[in-house]
Amino acid sequence: MRMNNMLHFTENHRYCVYRDFSLSPVDGKTLSLIYQPMVGAFAISLYRLLVEQVPQDQVGYSRVEQQRVLFLTLGIDPSERGRTYLVEQTSKLEAVGLLQTSRMYMTDSDEYMYEYELQPPLSPTEFFNTQHLTLLLRDKIGKFAVLSLRERFFSKEPGDMYGLSHNKENITVPFYDIFELNTHSIDYELEQAIAETALARQSGGPLDAEEERINYADIILRFPRDSVNRSHVEGLRFNLEGMGVLNFVSRKFDLSVQDLCRLLDEDGVFDPSGGILLDELQHRANLHFRQGKRRNEEREVAYAKVVSIAREEEEQLEEFPVQMEYYLEVPKQFINKCDIHQYNMMLRNEPYTRLLRTFFPGAVPDNLLDIFTKIDLNYKLPGEVINVLIHYLMSLLTSNTEQRINRNFVEAIASNMLMKQINTYEKAVGYIREQSKVKAKSTPEAQDGAGRRRTYKGRQATGKSKPEIPIVPSSTQEEGVSDEEFAEMLKLAERMQAGRNNEA
Fold first, then answer.
1. How many other CB atoms are there within 10 angstroms of residue 123's CB atom?
2. Residue 458 host element (H or E)
3. How far is Cα 110 from Cα 237, in angstroms, rounded to an integer?
């Protein structure tokens, strides 16, 4: 039982006991011979007293009473020393798995109430198969005493069967060979009653979701007393809506209780009336979340570098072949150094750090190395995919002299790969080939006809020049004009000129 303030655990606080089992003679023997040497006689007495709080022929909850009953029954002085002693005994029971203690804050009565949920002792087989409990018992009573206890709990086979080899056949009759259920008619009332009974335990006991929620007591215990916002935080005591807002923000930005208290202690989080300014609180929580994320990334990168340096000489990676349909072209930097087979094997198997060294005559720039280190260690992109990404970026640089490689550009491509689940060499090659096609279609010089059409549309939209009207090609223009046709054309021109002169 974790108890920071003993004033929260006194004889005046109320408690209840929950038990969903009953003790058998074997359980009683286990408690006396196995658990008692580990936790002591007083702790076992406390356990038996809590078991008796629920009637022996029933399971469930006991009556709600003051803890004064426990103090007086066990003969403990209701003082600070007695409370500390009782907390120690319950902690021993919790450590060996016999008890689970929960503290509930009752908003109506403004007090704490304790729930002692009892757990059944382990069976002899389960106990001696649990290593840490067996070692604790060995430390308490010795190795030979443990072996002797184990023999006292198990009854050996009869003399006629002991030490003999035999074949065992399971001839048990299953359930549906004897009984038949009427599955055509469903009793909804029965199912609803069973469901409501099962939910009664969850609503009466601690919920799994409630265990993750931050309550008022967690905040007020850690909040500074001399803070300006102390009165506003104390106003959240009965403000369920305000506590819901704090839990929403803490869950959204992964805040601990300490982080939430630091944010609530800052100026500008509360309005003059004590209400929470949600937008401002979310803004500051987002800043805290991003800073923490950045620190975690830097910590992971530093740790991974140390591990990689220590294991670099020990690891021998297996080489994987590359199918010819996934071959990539050799860049200009490697034309005289290796052929296409060697280059693609390097992309498929070499680490990205070594691949980067081959592109630079000297040391790799730190900013470029940091970009791919973050992609490797934080984004968890496979090494072969990173190599294909490096090849794609270098090909962009060689094909377009105006292209610049910066952090945002590289991270945008890596993020797109992650969203499309590019996690193999083959998928990465297919991805960059699609990107190259898109790049080629978007370039005006890629296709002359498409380039002229885009130029015409651009000029028409801007109005800077007249559009060019396409002319249907004629076969006569290609074959030329004969002498007879040329003479006919001259006569036709003369007649047209004569007609115009007469009209004038």
1. 14
2. helix 448-462
3. 9
Contacts of 355 (CB under 8 A, 6+ apart): 346, 347, 387, 390
Q: How confident is the model at residue 161 (pLDDT cuts 50, 70, 90)?
A: low
- Token pair in block for residue 25: 């003679």
Instruction: Tell me how far apart the 2 most distant CA atoms of the chain are, in Å.
Output: 145
Indicate the DSSP class of residue 13: S
Mean pLDDT of the chain: 80
Whether 364 contacts 348, CB under 8 Å: no
Assign 335 a pLDDT band (cuts: 50, 70, 90): confident
Q: Print the SS3 string covering 353-379.
A: HHHHHHHCCCCCCHHHHHHHHHHHHCC
Residue 250, pLDDT score: 87
Distances (CA, A) of 489 to 169, 495, 503: 114, 10, 22
CA gap 387, 426 in Å, rounded: 12
pTM of the entire structure?
0.44
For residue 251, give every residue at least 6 positions away whose Cβ sits within 8 Å of its Cβ, in sequence order, or none.
212
Tokens of 373: 């280190």
The separation between CA 480 and the C-alpha centre of its own chain, rounded to angstroms, equals 77
CA distance 177 to 413: 62
Count CB-CB contacts under 10 A for residue 17: 22
Per-residue confidence (pLDDT) for residue 211, from 0 to 100: 45
Place of tokens 């970026």: 393
Tokens standing for residue 285 = 């929580």
DSSP per position, 122-136: PPHHHHHT-HHHHHH
Asked if residues 36 and 83 have their Cβ atoms less than 8 Å apart, the reply is no
Q: What is the pLDDT of residues 352-409, one digit of tens each?
A: 888 888 887 777 787 888 888 878 877 888 888 888 888 888 888 777 766 677 788 8
